[in-house]
Amino acid sequence: MSPLIVLAADTAGLLRQAEVLRKAFQKALSTGTVSSSLPLGPTAVFVGANLDPQDEPASQYELFVYLMESIFQIPPAKCSECKKSGSVQGSTVILLSGGNPQRGWEFVQGLRSSLLECVCVIGISAGAMQLGRPMLCIVPWFVVVHEEAEGWPSEKALREAHQTISKDDILCLSSGTIRIV
User: Fewest beta carbons less than 10 Å away: which of 3, 50, 87, 153?
Assistant: First the structure.
């Protein structure tokens, strides 16, 4: 059973689509054997490896806790911050933060198996990019975010550099949008 995957350009899209996300999460929880393996209820983990210390990781974590409680109905006591790779195992929801996808890559690539075993994976901005090609390849697309004002130069560069890549191989997420897989 593969996890529910949410790719978001930013948290605004998650908040805007809160009810859709809540229903998709409840459906994912109720299908298969996942719900029976959560006797103490769902848990959520914030992976902030992509963040620069100037990005105020503490405020990003507070926003994560708010999202988990308001959208997924996971209480703050069941939320934690991932400081080492083993601390995500067995989590119901894993959120990969925004920031710089290269900054957190070494850490995030060690989480692949845990990401595939949880109920829901959320990638925001850099985290969404890491879930795609050529990084973790959990989703089938190259994920490009926040380039709508410039006309998506990364999409164009990918298609020019690799003649086999079509427009369908690239997912462009503009500000405020999400994609649920």
Answer: 153
